[in-house]
Amino acid sequence: VSFFDSLNHAMCALSTGGFSTKLMSIGEYDSVAVEMVTVLLMIIGTTNFGVLLMMVEGKWKKAWQVSEMRFLVILTVILVAIATISLEQGTEFTWARSLREGFFNVVSAYSTSGFATADYTTWPTVTFAVVTVSMLIGGGIGSTAGGLKLTRVYLLVRVTWMNIKKRFMPKNQVQVASYYNVSGKQVIDDEVISETFGYFGLYFIIYFFGTVIIALNSNVNFGHAMFEFASCFSTVGLSAGVTTPDTPALTLIVEIIGMFLGRLEIYIAL
Known about the structure:
Layout: H1 3-14, H2 32-45, H3 49-56, H4 60-65, H5 67-90, H6 95-110, H7 125-137, H8 150-166, E1 178-181, E2 184-187, H9 190-218, H10 222-233, H11 249-264, H12 266-269
Antiparallel strand pairs: 1-2
Helix pairs in contact: 1-2, 2-6, 5-6, 5-7, 6-7, 7-10, 8-9, 9-10, 9-11, 10-11
């Protein structure tokens, strides 16, 4: 890869911007080496700056203790596994090619970078859905990534699991749950739960209405509208072919509002 292209792609991977000097993005090179280096840069870009500082200082054990980092690894394994199986079953890809495509594009989606190696509209519905969900989840808090953010999704899963466990525990038994962020151990109290679920609810109300408007105004199926607005709202930049030079003005306005709210975060924008 030329120095000019390398410089542009490296900057856009680290800042999770996803802009490319090539029409087919990273897929233009059809190179495992280029894709793996880009994946590494995207993961660095989507990692909390506080965690990156710990790593630079050699505090690897403390960095791994951060709940968000462990959740990132588990999430990557699950999403890539589903995408790989779906691609192998629903396309002519070999297992190796399915893993390669699934791994790169899932990381690109949840890091909200927006690089691509394929046309998602030709992929099986399950893989298409995995990429959509990955975009909505987003990257780490305190990183350049967009989306709901990994910590919020982690807390959402933890609180849901706590509530399920509570149904099977004696009534007089008290649960004191906690998690780790860059500042250390934090208690999952009522304020944390309220903030997490409040943001989650507001996020999906906006996401739902944005998706519906795009689906109706652009006359596209709901799945493609979900993908497109997830990409805008999480500031990813991938497209299912809905956003083109001929896209109706209302759809573009809704996407602009989604990108604005997603980049600044909803509460800050309000």
